[in-house]
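pls design
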């Protein structure tokens, strides 16, 4: 089962813009992630590592498609989306994935109770709109779901890390900025410092 590519892009820009106008701090972006940015995020995920891949804020599914192209089976994807319309689209476009209509913080608490094995969390949430303490809480909640080598992947339009680099016990890496995106963005990967060395070939700057 794969993403229904024929449905991708049909009115997605208008849907995203309308959602952003109604709730800019919650949506964060005026447009869906571009194909190059989506691929850069998916590149930070190792499809050979067993376990669920959780996507936070998948929107209309561009990063979801890139993850599948990367080699992550749809049946391993857990898509956490707070927008009901986007959830409906995701269920239509990627029927093999599990779609959870929930806030990311509430979803992490629920998933921790379920005890799911998780290999990576890929986030498109607008973290910069949150207080640093809440950002770190989400990061730590996600890392607790994963083994020592688990990765938390986040993109940002900012020139600095969207998560405080002073956080103890966390190792961060940044990929080159994706200039061909509206707007140019950078992908950051975070792991527990006590985990195995990252194979993600980039450095924090």
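designed seq:
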């Amino acid at each position: 089962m794969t993403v229904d590519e024929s449905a991708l892009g049909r009115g997605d820009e208008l849907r995203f813009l309308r959602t952003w106008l109604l709730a800019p701090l919650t949506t964060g972006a005026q447009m869906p992630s571009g194909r190059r940015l989506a691929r850069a995020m998916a590149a930070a995920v190792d499809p050979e590592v067993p376990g669920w891949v959780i996507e936070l804020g998948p929107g209309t599914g561009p990063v979801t498609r890139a993850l599948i192209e990367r080699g992550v089976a749809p049946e391993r994807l857990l898509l956490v989306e707070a927008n009901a319309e986007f959830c409906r689209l995701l269920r239509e476009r990627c029927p093999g994935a599990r779609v959870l209509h929930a806030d990311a913080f509430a979803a992490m608490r629920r998933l921790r109770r379920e005890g799911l094995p998780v290999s990576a969390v890929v986030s498109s949430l607008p973290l910069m709109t949150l207080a640093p303490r809440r950002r770190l809480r989400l990061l730590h909640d996600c890392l607790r779901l994963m083994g020592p080598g688990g990765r938390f992947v986040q993109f940002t339009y900012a020139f600095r890390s969207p998560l405080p680099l002073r956080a103890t016990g966390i190792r961060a890496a940044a990929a080159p900025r994706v200039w061909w995106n509206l707007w140019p963005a950078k992908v950051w990967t975070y792991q527990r410092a006590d985990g195995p060395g990252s194979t993600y070939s980039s450095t924090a700057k």
